[in-house]
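Protocol step 4 of 6: record predicted structures for both targets in the notebook before any analysis. Target 1:
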Amino acid sequence: MGVFYYKVTPAPDGEVYDGAVSTTEVQLKHGDADVGGGIRLHYVEAGVGPLVVLLHGFPEFWYGWRHQIPVLAAAGYRVVAPDMRGYDLSDKPQGWRSYDTGLLADDIAGLIRSFGTLEGTSEQDAYVVGHDWGAAVAYTVAMNHPDVVRRLAILNVPHTARMLEGLRTLKQLRKSWYMFFFQIPRLPERLIARDDFSFAKRSLRSDSKDAFTDEDLERYVEAWAQPGALTGMVNYYRAALRRSPGKALAQMKPIKAPTLVIWGMRDRHIGSELAEPAPEWVPNVRVERIAEATHWVQHDAAARVNELLLGFFDDTRS
C-alpha cells in the first residue's frame, strides 16, 4: 500500500534519541511511510518478530515510548512507533477536518498493512498499543479495521461511549476544560509556545515530577517546534468536539480483538470510573489499575506496563 524507505536521522538528533532508547542489543531505525491518502508518517523501528505498533498521545511523539521500545524489541517483537499525523516529523495537513478520528485510524491501518506488504507476508496485523489520543485512535482502528488488530492495549483513555458519558457530568467537564479552550483559533498554540514552551513543560511536570527529565523536555520542545506541529496537535481536539455525540455513537462498532486496559489511578484529567468499556462495545476486556501512576502511566510505571504488555502479547505465542 505504501513504499517505505529508511532515512538517516541528522547526527545530533540520532545521537540523542538513539542514545536514550537504544541498547547494545536494540538499535533504532528511522523511516517514513506513505500510508495512503497522501499522508506520510515518520516512525522509529526496532527488533524482529511479530509487529507491535505504539501510538502516542498529546503532546508527545514517538519518543513517549522510550521505556517500552527496547524492552519489547528485546523480547522478540518488531516494534514500530510512529509520529502521529500532525506531530513532529510526520505530515501535518491543514484544517481541523483532516484530524477526524476515522482518518487518523486509516493512517495506522495503512501503516500496519504496509509493513506486511514490505515483508511480502500474508500477515498484515499487529498488536496495537495506544496512550491518550493514541488510545482513542487505537480503539477506532480496532472498530473500523478489525483485520489489522491482533490484540489491543489501551492506556488511560476511555472508550468513546464512556467518554461521552463522562462529558455529561460536571466532574469530567471540569477535568476536560482544556478540550474546550482548544477550540479557540490560534490562542492555544500561542499559549503553549510562549517562553520556550514553558506552559507545556510545566503541565507535564505538574502531573508527574519524575517522569520527564530536563533532557526529555528538550526533545519534546524540538518536536513541538516543528512547523505546523502545534496546530496539528490541537486540531485533534477541534475535530473531536465538532463531531456530534449522536454521529459518534452511530459510527461505533463492537471491538472483536482481545483488549487490555492499563489505567494509572492518579490521572487528574480523566476519571477512573471511565476506565472500563461497556461490554456491548468491548466484550473481551481486562482492566489493570496501577495505583501509583498518573495519566503518564507508561512513564510512571514503565516496568509494570512492560510486564503487562508482554504477558498480554505472549498469550498468543504460547
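Target 2:
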Amino acid sequence: MAHAVGGVTDELVSLRQALWSIPETRDALLEYYERLFTPGIDEYYFGEPAIESIECPTLVLWTDKNPIHGVDAAERLHQLIGGSAVHVMEGCAHWPQWERPAEHDAVISQFLQRACE
C-alpha cells in the first residue's frame, strides 16, 4: 500500500492494529471488504453521468503509484467534474498521508481554504 521503502512505519502499523481492535470498526471493515469483492459490485459504481453532475468544490487527489488505477483515472475525473482541482502526488501509492504527510496536508489545506472563500 506504500510505495516508498519505509512508507509503512511502526506508527502506521500500531494505528491500524488499534483500529482493527475496536469490535465495531473491525466488523464494519470486514463487511466493507466482503462487499467490495462481491460479484456484481460494479453495478454500484458511479458512472460518468453521475460524476459529471457533481457541483461542489472537488479535489481529485491522486498518486502516481496507485495500486488500483493510474494517473489517467485522476485526469478523467478532473475532466468530468467541472471546476475541479487535481493534484498527483509523485512517489506515493495508497497512503499518501503517511508517505508524504507535509505535501498531502498542504494540498488539502490550500484546497479547503480556496473552497471556503
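Step 5 preliminary note on target 2. The two ends are 35 Å apart (CA to CA). Residues 5 and 99 are 9 Å apart (CA to CA).
Proceed to step 6 after PI sign-off.
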